[in-house]
């Protein structure tokens, strides 16, 4: 049967239109998918940022509380030292006060002795004066008249010697008493000086005690301030814990939505005739150590520390469902590996690649094929491969399935 040129032309035009429509629908679908992914990532980014801000506030609050507790401990130690010093000072003050009282008693006793000596001196002096007066009155002429009445030289010398002895003895006794009184006065003065020194020492000790009391009061005020800071930090910690819990819920929800999207990317290829033999190979030929295991602190995968630029391999045959950049994973690749004999689906995700992936979405890959290179892009603190694995869209510990 011969087909007319007109019919061929019509069929060609129909095919062309069909292809245009198909490409347009495909492009629009991809654009919508990219927009949806960007929207979900933005939501997760916002939730992650909110959580990180709250966690930073928690860290700052904990640091503030720890600083207050440290200061409080220092103030309490200083207060304890000062309290001990105050106790010792008060003992010293009490001892000095006791010594002052003792000196005062000694001074009073010494003053009594001085008074006795003074009275004895006064009595002796009065007797001396009385004897002089009596001698003056003897024989109306006093001692001179007495001496004039002597009938011979012996009497004269005897009277003169007697008078001289009486006068000398009186002077000696008076001088002795005076010397004793002066000695007692000197002892009293020495005691008063010692008492004055003790009183000065007491004043200095009381001044030190007053300064320590002021310092202790200042420290106690500082301790109260730190207690207030600690209490405020505890209250803030409770409030931030509530905020953090809500932020985690928001992040979990946003992550779940993004995860659902990533699973939907896998679901696009679920009808592909891929059979997962479960004979997985290593993602890295070599690595330094496992820096973080699955489940630690909610960690989604297993981290293999390795030098930057180390080749990353597909662990099994599959189809690349995603090969792009994510704020947390950095440059990453997601691969769908098909179904096992029981109908379970398997997929893997490789994150933090040093540069754009070596494969693209929709591309078929084989086990051991290089899909990228180890790096530290996204939320990462060092060169490593973050490897995730999902069975039926649920995260599992990749280390239990993939040799390493």
Automatic annotation (TrEMBL):
<keyword id="KW-0482">Metalloprotease</keyword>
<dbReference type="GO" id="GO:0004222">
    <property type="term" value="F:metalloendopeptidase activity"/>
</dbReference>
<feature type="signal peptide">
    <location>
        <begin position="1"/>
        <end position="27"/>
    </location>
</feature>
<dbReference type="InterPro" id="IPR050570">
    <property type="entry name" value="Cell_wall_metabolism_enzyme"/>
</dbReference>
<feature type="domain" description="M23ase beta-sheet core">
    <location>
        <begin position="298"/>
        <end position="397"/>
    </location>
</feature>
<dbReference type="GO" id="GO:0046872">
    <property type="term" value="F:metal ion binding"/>
</dbReference>
<keyword id="KW-0479">Metal-binding</keyword>
<keyword id="KW-0862">Zinc</keyword>
<feature type="coiled-coil region">
    <location>
        <begin position="174"/>
        <end position="264"/>
    </location>
</feature>
<dbReference type="Pfam" id="PF01551">
    <property type="entry name" value="Peptidase_M23"/>
</dbReference>
<dbReference type="InterPro" id="IPR011055">
    <property type="entry name" value="Dup_hybrid_motif"/>
</dbReference>
<dbReference type="GO" id="GO:0006508">
    <property type="term" value="P:proteolysis"/>
</dbReference>
<keyword id="KW-0732">Signal</keyword>
<keyword id="KW-0645">Protease</keyword>
<keyword id="KW-0175">Coiled coil</keyword>
<feature type="coiled-coil region">
    <location>
        <begin position="30"/>
        <end position="122"/>
    </location>
</feature>
<dbReference type="InterPro" id="IPR016047">
    <property type="entry name" value="M23ase_b-sheet_dom"/>
</dbReference>
<keyword id="KW-0378">Hydrolase</keyword>
<protein>
    <submittedName>
        <fullName>Peptidoglycan DD-metalloendopeptidase family protein</fullName>
    </submittedName>
</protein>
